């Protein structure tokens, strides 16, 4: 049976389907037969599925980055090497969100999932895994998105100032995830989960096997 005959047969079967068997709202409602004969199904969009593809970090919030020389805020090139005071909502999926992340290619491409089903860049997580493995990528690793509220002004130079009350975002690397888990455990032991907490944020420079990198650190005051 060729593709056209397969499509006609599927349409004929659908017309014979009893009304009680028709898909209801939220169920699979649409299908497409590809050139190879595979059937791809689609699901009605919903806020739940949309939120599953997004982080706790709003658009246009600058990111906090780190290397062995210090911290960098947003697009500034200068390093900031002093600890600073901030606040983090230690409510999961509100102030921070865990995810699995893939890294592959050169320059590196990053793809993540918050629910194991949808990819944050669109499409399915399964397709993201296939794409990464086809490009020689490794296995997914755990990472975290964190929304940070500054509790003091950060002055990089006369042209770059981040005021107290503004927000910055942090996305952990594979090597920086343990610092977050240590902080989470400290908050749990201090009975400070599910609430806004004060935190001192700094960095550590790491030197190992001839490689140098930096990690962001979190500490309860």
Please give the structural blueprint.
Elements: H1 3-15, E1 28-33, E2 39-43, H2 47-52, E3 64-67, E4 70-73, E5 84-89, E6 96-104, E7 109-113, H3 125-134, E8 141-150, E9 154-157, E10 160-162, E11 167-171, H4 177-189, E12 196-208, E13 211-219
Antiparallel strand pairs: 1-2, 3-4, 5-8, 5-12, 6-7, 6-8, 8-11, 9-10, 12-13
Shape: globular
As a percent range, the share of helical residues equals 10-25%
**What is the tally of helical segments?**
4
Class inferred from helices and paired strands: alpha+beta
Major sheet size, sense and barrel closure? 7 strands, antiparallel
The termini sit apart by: 70 Å
- Number of spatially distinct domains: 2
The residue-averaged pLDDT reads: 84
Give, in order, the helices and strands: HEEHEEEEEHEEEEHEE
Low-confidence stretches: 13-40
Tell me the total number of β-strands.
Answer: 13
Strand content: 35-45%
Cα Rg: 23 Å
Region (Disordered): 1-36
Write a structural description:
Residues 1-36 are annotated as: Disordered. By secondary structure, the protein is of the alpha+beta class. It folds into two domains: 3-44, no CATH class; 50-219, no CATH class. It has four helices and 13 strands. It has helices at 3-15, 47-52, 125-134, 177-189, and strands spanning 28-33, 39-43, 64-67, 70-73, 84-89, 96-104, 109-113, 141-150, 154-157, 160-162, 167-171, 196-208, 211-219. Strands 5, 6, 7, 8, 11, 12 and 13 form a seven-stranded antiparallel β-sheet that branches. It has a two-stranded antiparallel sheet with strand order 1-2. The radius of gyration is 23 Å and the shape is globular. The model is unreliable at 13-40 (pLDDT under 50).
